[in-house]
Amino acid sequence: IAGITQAPTSQILAAGRRMTLRCTQDMRHNAMYWYRQDLGLGLRLIHYSNTAGTTGKGEVPDGYSVSRANTDDFPLTLASAVPSQTSVYFCASSDSIPGLNTEAFFGQGTRLTVV
Amino acid sequence: GQSLEQPSEVTAVEGAIVQINCTYQTSGFYGLSWYQQHDGGAPTFLSYNALDGLEETGRFSSFLSRSDSYGYLLLQELQMKDSASYFCAVRASGSNYQLIWGAGTKLIIKP
What we know:
The structure holds two protein chains of two kinds. Chain A has strands spanning about 5, 10-15, 20-25, 30-35, 45-50, 55, 65, 75-80, 85-95, 105, 110-115. Chain A is mostly beta strands. By secondary structure, chain B is mainly β. In chain B, the strands form two sheets. In chain B, strands 2, 4, 5, 9, 10 and 11 form a six-stranded mixed β-sheet that branches. In chain B, strands 1-3-8-7-6 form a five-stranded antiparallel β-sheet, with no helix packed on it. Classes of the chains: A mainly beta, B mainly beta. At the A-B interface, strand 5 and strand 10 of A face strand 4, strand 5 and strand 9 of B.
C-alpha cells in the first residue's frame, strides 16, 4: 500500500539522549517535511527537503537535523533531547511543483516524550 | 511576515451548516488548501483552491477570493464524525514554496 510510514509511533526518551525519527515514503514525492504539533496547536515546520540531496530550515529548526540521501527517506535527528521537544512529530511528503495542487500526505505521527 | 488567521473554535449542531474562515497574508500565493485532523490522527487533505470561486466535493465546499486574501470551508449536513480540527494552508513562493499553516479551527458538533 502506497503511503508514508513513520517509526517509532511513540517513544519516551531521557533528556540528553540522541534520537532519530524515521520516515519513509513510496510515492516518489520529491518534497518531504517534518512538523511538530504541540497539544492543541497547529503544525510548525522543522525542516524540509524539496528534493533528494537538499534540505532547508523551517520555522523551528533548532535542536534538530535532517538528511535526504535518497528520495524515499527523510530521518529527523534530535542530537540531545530536551523536555521542550516533547511533541507529536509528523512527517509529510508531496510533489513540489508551484502552481499545482501539491497535496501533502502525512505519516501517522510519532509521539515523543522527553523526560 | 507571513500568516494565516482562522477561528480557534466553532460550535454547530448536527445536521446544520458551518463555515470556517481563513484570511492569509503571504508573499506570493499559489493556492489555499484545507486539511482535516481528528484527535490523535494525522492531517488529511480535503480541498484545494487556486482560482477564485467555489469548489464543491460532496458535503464539503471551499471558497477562495484572491483579491480579499480570504477563503472558507463550508461543511453541510454536519455529522458527528465531522468533529475535528480543520487547518487552512497556503503554498507561497515567499516561503520557498512551503505550506504555511493556520493554527487550526476545532469544530465541535452537538447533537
